[in-house]
Prior knowledge:
By secondary structure, the protein is of the alpha+beta class. The protein has helices spanning 13-23, 27-38, 41-57, 67-85, 146-152, 157-168, 173-179, 184-201, 215-229, 233-238, 258-268, 326-329, and strands at 240-247, 254-256, 275-282, 285-294, 299-311, 314-321, 335-337. The chain has 2 domains: 14-86 and 117-205, Butyryl-CoA Dehydrogenase, subunit A, domain 3 (Up-down Bundle); 215-340, Nuclear Transport Factor 2, Chain: A (Roll), CATH 3.10.450.50. Strands 1, 2, 3, 4, 5, 6 and 7 form a 7-stranded mixed sheet that branches.
Amino acid sequence: MAIESPNIEPTTNDANRDFEQLAEPLRREIRLHCYRMLGSLHEAEDLVQETYLRAWRSFASFDGGSMRAWLYKIATNTCLNALESRKHQQRYLPDQLGPAVEPAAFGAPSNDIPWLEPYPDSDLEGIADASPNPEARYSAQESVQLAFVSAIQQLPPRQRAAMMLCDVLGWASAEAAKLLESTTASINSALQRARETLSKSYSNRRTSIQTPPTAAQQKLLGRYLRAWEEHNVDRFVALLKEDAAAVMPPWLQWLAGREMIGAFFAGAWKTCGGLHLVPTAANGQPAFAVYEHSAAEQRWKAHSIHVITLENEVIARITLFIEPSLFAGFGLAASLPDDAVTRPASHSKGS
């Protein structure tokens, strides 16, 4: 797709073609880099557009070296500028801001907090260099998982950039220093501080990676879908690890343990319409897009994206992103016609 701007003179057709041939195959991994840096699907899309516009405008100065390194330099600096200009340089999940609560303690949504957003696995397909260099400390699969992305959001922006370049992409410190217009010693110092921070905030949340899910895990996910569509609390709770967590941005409060999670949804589902779950994947993890039935409008409306963290054959964590605008990024409709979904025969809460 050609990039156009009414404010500058168009380049020659040959230059446009050369730029597209070199840059377009890298767009998805540059978008992922922007997402890791900012923790937002929406912001990543905006910043990758800005990155490509800047690159196109300055393509005449490209020296014919590594297009990948050149785009990463522009993208990283674009992200750093965006972080510098905004009030909040960090995005959060609820359990990073306070302890778990009982269901009765839930208040109103906290829309003034910059919440982390999920990233669709469909945008991970076709990314080149999926296996990182030996120097990388984190695999491509691990470095996109919610636990990792939420942890690195707590790093200062330049530490975050250094870690992305060196520990995720596998660049040498000298290469990262050149990109960030810094020194190798400064990059190594930033990496040391970043690694120390992550050792405290991430190590205890690190989980084994099972991609794709095993046959037993696929059956578990099928039972999750049916339990939600049938509003069956007992069957839902039976799928959870004893100390499972449920976080639901934009709600600041979150839940820990089967009992608390079960009690919350037993109450929530009493006032909930029918639910329809569409399997998807996000952040390298199983996920569901959830639609809620609106009897008044006679349609199914986008409700939330559930990202599931599995531990062997139980669910260790559920992150429910209650933000309908995320559906577009997953290529999903904002609503479905009433007759597009066959509703379960009953909404039983028992087993």
